[in-house]
């Protein structure tokens, strides 16, 4: 059957002209929004060029005329193996290998063009049997998943080995009423999630050493069916965390009470894409505010922290793992520290608005 489907696909592809070059109006996701003529390519910020050559395919996404991303699909001569490659800024970011039936065999992740992670998939009787994650540098195994199935063919259990002697077990059970339950265990902790017949999460529980630590119940809007609210009971602390969600089911407010008294309230503001732009905490320390800004690509670019209305810290994110932290005292800048990941590169000391001294750690 699979071979028949493959022959049909090959026949359909053969009907297309080899080297076909098409242009589309697109977006930052690379979607084919509308076919355009070559003379219209400068009318849109995002333009996708699609080129087919038999089964092989190349897609180039341009941002104001400059290549932002590229996707390549190639088949071997026997048409039994397909390879997909993703590029960003001309640098390889991901690579995937499939068999003729479309099953993913190997997935690779790249950082700065270098292999950082490799994932291998093994199948048996048409079902995923094993998944191994390897480090890209030395090929050592990071984790391994083994998938076990019930007699009816449904997934029953996933066993993950992270390190020798450390195993995480996830299992799934569906009752006659349609209510299903998923369990994950690691060490002495068990996490249980229960779903209704429509697949909505209705209850989440955590147990440590067999004792229930927290139970969270979820409620949904009857009209939109979006998540509306939840209440998490903290057993040991006699606490309760009440959460409210916006129209799109995104968290908008958290209120924590202990023994009936409000301890803190967290509120969130978001932009049109759902990203958090502001977080406010009202608690015993007074009012604290975090503000977040993002680049055009959606990455976090700036964080600001205020306590009782006074700016305390500003973090500016640069390329890759580079960032700068600015510390303020009584609203005045007194220290600026430059980092590359967790490595401190340089610090500058300020007083009365002027640089006093600097120190390099390189």
Summarize the structure.
The chain is mainly beta.
Features:
mainly beta; 29-stranded antiparallel sheet; 362 residues; single chain
Write the layout of secondary structure elements.
Blueprint: H1 2-14, E1 20-25, E2 34-36, E3 46-53, E4 56-63, E5 66-75, E6 81-88, E7 91-99, E8 104-111, E9 114-124, E10 127-135, E11 141-149, E12 155-163, E13 166-174, E14 180-186, E15 189-195, E16 201-208, E17 211-220, E18 227-234, E19 239-245, E20 251-258, E21 261-270, E22 276-283, E23 286-294, E24 300-307, E25 310-317, E26 322-329, E27 332-340, E28 343-351, E29 354-360
Antiparallel strand pairs: 1-2, 1-3, 3-4, 4-5, 5-6, 6-7, 7-8, 8-9, 9-10, 10-11, 11-12, 12-13, 13-14, 14-15, 15-16, 16-17, 17-18, 18-19, 19-20, 20-21, 21-22, 22-23, 23-24, 24-25, 25-26, 26-27, 27-28, 28-29
Query: Which strand-content bin applies to the residues?
Result: over 45%
Average pLDDT over all residues:
88
What are the low-pLDDT stretches, counting only 5+ consecutive residues below 50? 8-17
Number of strands: 29
Distance between the first and last residues' Cα: 62 Å
Number of helices: 1
- Helical amount: under 10%
Radius of gyration: 26 Å
Largest sheet: 29 strands, antiparallel
- Shape assignment: globular
- Topology as H/E string? HEEEEEEEEEEEEEEEEEEEEEEEEEEEEE
Structural class: mainly beta
Structural features, described:
This protein is mostly beta strands and about 350 residues long. Among the domains are: about 100 residues, no CATH class; about 80 residues. The protein has a 29-stranded antiparallel beta sheet, with no helix packed on it. A hairpin with a 4-residue loop joins strand 25 and strand 26. The radius of gyration is 26 Å and the shape is globular. About 5% of the residues have low confidence.
